[in-house]
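FW: tagging you since you asked about this chain on Friday. Here's the raw sequence from the shared folder, copied in full. Didn't touch anything.
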Amino acid sequence: MHLKVLPIICLLFAFVDPANAAEIDTTFTYQGALEYQGSPANGFFDFEFRVYKDEVSSILVGGIVTVEDVLVENGIFTAEISPNQNVFLEGTQRWLEIRVREGSSTGSMTTLAPRQKITGSPFALPDDRFKNYSISALTLNSPKFVRHVGFGEAYLATGFTQAWATAPVHLPDGARIETFVCYIQDNDPTGRLEISLQRHKGDGAASATSLAIIGTTLGFASPTKHRSWGGDMTEEQRFINNSDASYYISVMLNGIQSPALAVYQCVIVYR
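HL: got it, structure written out here
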């Protein structure tokens, strides 16, 4: 079995409760491109992640993280990794070893080489075939949002029960959108958050086309640190055409006036 993984983005977000800054979530998210026998993989795969101090060291930092039945579509996958300690406390770079097997298998996993370098900054260096475009919640253009620079989130201001905000997206002409990832917090079952990647064609039409929608619905009570969209766009919609369209991120928040319902960052992966 020939398997190969290429890093796209590696994101470290430590979500801190302003009321208790000592409680830091050390989970980070790895997004990669998996090749199976020379072609982009599809289907479910089991992954094992190990963080090491350097490229060849046997010194493990944190625990071994196993994530089973991860959906891989056209080679693209996203996995949330929680090694039970902040792996970046003692230094600014670590090395991630990835092991994988087909989801229907129960035997040993294949160790992928080489290890992938990761850092304590929000973005690791991507593979040359992929790039990422990042939009901070702090750039959203609505006076109804509170922007907390220290924690990087935006949420509803006091006195408002609902608000929309947008941020323009500037991608190179001809770029192909691969996936759309949003980093959010949803700790309240009564609120709602919706983020969409939209295209507005320059033909005078009043409405925009939502290319990708990520959201939480009323009654969703569990904390959510990231949501990713793999894609059901048409092939034509995936390609950026700046000559006849403009693109932007639209964010809607409803009901909660605290960081319990907040957006941090949106990332578009393209090539």
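FW: Residues 11-24, 121-127, 218-222 have pLDDT under 50 and may be disordered.
HL: agreed, and Residues 235-238 form the longest helix (4 residues).
FW: great, closing this out.
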